Amino acid sequence: MRFVNSVFKVLKYPKMGTLKLASRRASFLSRFEITMDLRESISNQTDVALSMTKLLVSKEARDKNFVYSPLSLHVVLSIIAAGSKGPTLDQLLSFLRSKSTDHLNSFASQLVTVVLSDAYPAGGPRLSFADGVWVEQTLPLLPSFKQLVNTDYRATLASVDFQTKAVEVANEVNSWAEKETNGLVKELLPAGSVDSETRLIFANALYFKGAWNEKFDASITKDHDFHLLDGNSVKVPFMTSEEKQFIRPFEGFKVLGLPYKQGEDKRQFTMYIFLPDAKDGLPALVEKLASESGFLERKFPNYQLDVGDFRIPRFKISFGFEASDVLKELGVVLPFTVGGLTEMVESPVGQKLWVSDIFHKSFIEVNEEGTEAAAATAATILLRSALSPSKIDFVADHPFLFLIREDLTGTVLFIGQVLDPRA
């Protein structure tokens, strides 16, 4: 899958004053608001992501590190919505907080061409975003659906034999996901998840590799205590720096912004760490972040401050879960029943299609150089037989939330939590 390249020339982020940067961001966004309400769509997508994060923190990943890409899940659900009708479509649109499938598809198209094009040729992060659709060879896709996944989602289409070669097709999808994530996501589809009853598979893969704008000096990385939720502590390597940092304190928590090297491109990718003041305060912080629409948008730091004690642990996380279980708990149940996916294939079989599973896997590594992250999502569709001080400390020595965000548009690519950097 080739990268879709889009290069914009501007002053580099580190050399730009705060007011000038804010002005350019506002100008960039206002031009987008003239063509479409991209900002509102991204804000809604972020709210959905925080709802999912809240559930993951409380259930699927209550006692473990996790990382996932809400953007990858959003795209797969958007493709499913594009092939849906009636109450199933209404439920998906309500969950995704979108007005119509046209709105969803337009949003996806803008994401692919504006936010997710590779920034590496311009000196920024390496970025790859790919969609794939595998369809049973005896089922022709509806021309309108085929055109949609080709144009708005830039998906590669493959006609395959699920009925006699299901295992081979599963291996093909897994190989595709591994290739598109630079080898970081393996075995996206677990053994037995594809069989002769499978009729379609939709998959999305997202890969990100960015170098810090200000790299950490590995020679001064030292072991310190990291406090676990159970009250114990462990020794882990902490990165540190005496450079000014983008930090913003709030009541009960602080937010750190670590920008990635930008290059000649208007997009600015940043990792944000949300650190609760209390060592066991992460669940309450996630609850607060997911409590109201737009809450997160008002919490990002805009100014660099002198730091006192400043330490961030290195960490590496690999995490997978069955997103269908989470979606059902959040009220998305109709796509997993027969009757709503009627706008995908040109056959009476379309009346009997249903989503059996949605699998998601992610990986992230954060070290002195920067961040490498990847995520992949696959949905299998079955046929149913029957206030700032002069100096501020930021010591991430207890569980915290992190996310990777494109700042000009506000798009969140990855969200995760670190409970134990060793894991």
TrEMBL record:
Pfam families (UniProt xref): Serpin
SMART domains recorded: SERPIN (SM00093)
InterPro entries with a match to the protein in the record: Serpin_CS (IPR023795), Serpin_dom (IPR023796), Serpin_fam (IPR000215), Serpin_sf (IPR036186), Serpin_sf_1 (IPR042178), Serpin_sf_2 (IPR042185)
Domain Serpin: 50-421
Family note: Belongs to the serpin family.
GO molecular function: serine-type endopeptidase inhibitor activity
Domain of life assignment: Eukaryota
Protein known as: Serpin domain-containing protein
